[in-house]
Amino acid sequence: MIIVQIILIVLVIAIVIWLLASTAVIVRQGEVKVVESFGKYVKTLEPGLHFLVPILYTVRERVSLKQIPLEIEPQSAITKDNVIVQIDEAIKYHVTDVRAFVYDNENSVVSMIQDAQSNLRGIIGKMDLNEVLNGTEEINVALFTSIKDITAGYGLAIDRINIGEIKVSQEIIESMNKLITASRDKESMITRAQGEKSSAVLSAEAKD
Questions:
Q1: CA angle 12, 14, 16 (to 5 degrees)
Q2: How many other CB atoms are found less than 10 A from the CB of residue 56?
Q3: Strand-strand pairing, 156-168 and 84-95
Q4: Rounded CA separation 107/39 (Å)
Q5: For FRET with 148, which of 68, 167, 184, 197 sits at 20 to 30 Å CA-CA?
Q6: Rounded to whole angstroms, how far apart are CA atoms 10 and 3?
Q7: In the chain, count of helices (H) and strands (E)?
Q8: At residue 62, does pLDDT exceed 90?
Q9: pLDDT single digits (tens) 118-138
Q10: CA dihedral of 13, 34, 38, 108, whole degrees rounded to 10
Q11: Are 125 and 140 in contact (CB under 8 A)?
């Protein structure tokens, strides 16, 4: 009889532990968890310990609220003077609207990346190569301004966006170097000609 009672007590304790384990939900600092009931959004759990009724409520997803760095693969863009450049982007973002982030877009991060790439191509297309190579900060500001309101609709906020290394073909680099050399040679010839002209004038004045 005593053995049966012990077995029952152990069984009850095991059931209680299982119920607590299955109903308890721990949310860590810097994140939230989305709760659904039969596929429908119910609420967002803040950091801390929560208890949910099994089967009736389930945790669909964990969403980090921390700032997230993201490197975007290099892409091709064409400048206003028809030069193809390779350029990459780095984004730092965080989630601002959990419900919109989870439910309003199939993949909010991918949508943000696509918008960033598309807008960057548009910005580069309005600048010639020299402007692109020397206007990194200007491009960063224009890119941030062009997509910050769009990504807000995905439940995301862009904290910072920067373009990385700008690459052009070796052929273009050689062509640019030739132009720079030709320009320097021309300036040198003009300076030398002006110097000779001034010298000749001074000599003529001296003879007079």
A1: 70
A2: 9
A3: antiparallel
A4: 18
A5: 167
A6: 11
A7: 6, 8
A8: yes
A9: 999 999 999 988 899 888 999
A10: -150
A11: no
Whole-number Å distance between alpha carbons of 124 and 122: 6
Whether 104 and 98 have beta carbons less than 8 Å apart is answered as no
Task: Find where tokens 């991918």 sit.
Answer: 110
Largest CA distance in the chain: 140
d(Cα 45, Cα 99) in Å, to the nearest integer? 12
Amino acid letter, residue 92: K
Task: Give the global pTM.
Answer: 0.71
Determine contact, residues 57/137, Cβ cutoff 8 Å: no
Using one digit for the tens of pLDDT, what is the confidence trace for 32-61? 999 999 989 999 999 999 988 888 898 999
DSSP-derived 3-state class of residue 15: helix
CA 97 to centroid of chain Cα atoms = 17
Q: What angle do CA 65, 69, 71 make, to 5 degrees?
A: 145
Both tokens assigned to 189: 């010839």
CA distances to 30, 62, 99, 102 from 66, rounded to whole Å, are 6, 12, 16, 16
Q: What is the pLDDT of residue 133?
A: 87
Q: How far is CA 22 from CA 26, 57, 119, in A?
A: 11, 11, 46
177 φ/ψ sector (left φ>0, alpha ψ -120 to 50, else beta): alpha
